[in-house]
Amino acid sequence: MSGKLSTHVLDTVHGCPAQSVKLELWAIADDTDHSQGQNKVLLKTLYTNQDGRTDELLLNDTEIKIGIYEICFYVSDYFAKFPDCANPTNSKINFLGQIPIRFGITDASDRYHVPLLVSPWSYSTYRGS
Fold this sequence. Notes:
This protein is mostly beta strands. The protein has one domain: Immunoglobulin-like (Sandwich). The protein contains one helix and eight strands; from the N terminus they run βββββαβββ. Strands 2-1-7-8 form a four-stranded mixed beta sheet, with no helix packed on it. Strands 4-3-5-6 form a four-stranded antiparallel beta sheet. A hairpin with a 4-residue loop joins β1 (4-11) and β2 (16-17). The longest helix has 5 residues, at 75-79. The model has no long low-confidence stretch (mean pLDDT 88). Its EC number is 3.5.2.17. Residues 5-128 form the Transthyretin/hydroxyisourate hydrolase domain. Belongs to the transthyretin family. 5-hydroxyisourate hydrolase subfamily. One of its GO terms (biological process) is purine nucleobase metabolic process.
């Protein structure tokens, strides 16, 4: 089996895939000192398509390595497009702006899927298949 990393973003307010969500994939060089990202290396910047997925894998079988990674999802930009999700105080600050999800890859030959289910006020994730 070839290893890979993928993602999927679902808009739980509108009940649909979240299209055109910017996301960044970061490699965390060493998280043992809890340096809060000082050792982060940007690997890719991608956008979700009409199915809420990226057109290419986050990491394919030649790119995936054992280590700590983070996907940062820019959800405030996505929800700003919808009047029903507007910030009621008309502030430039949203409750959820960027959502970083940090996770570990322990087997480079395995398949990893990190879905994001999101609204302007909450989110959840899990290890998918």
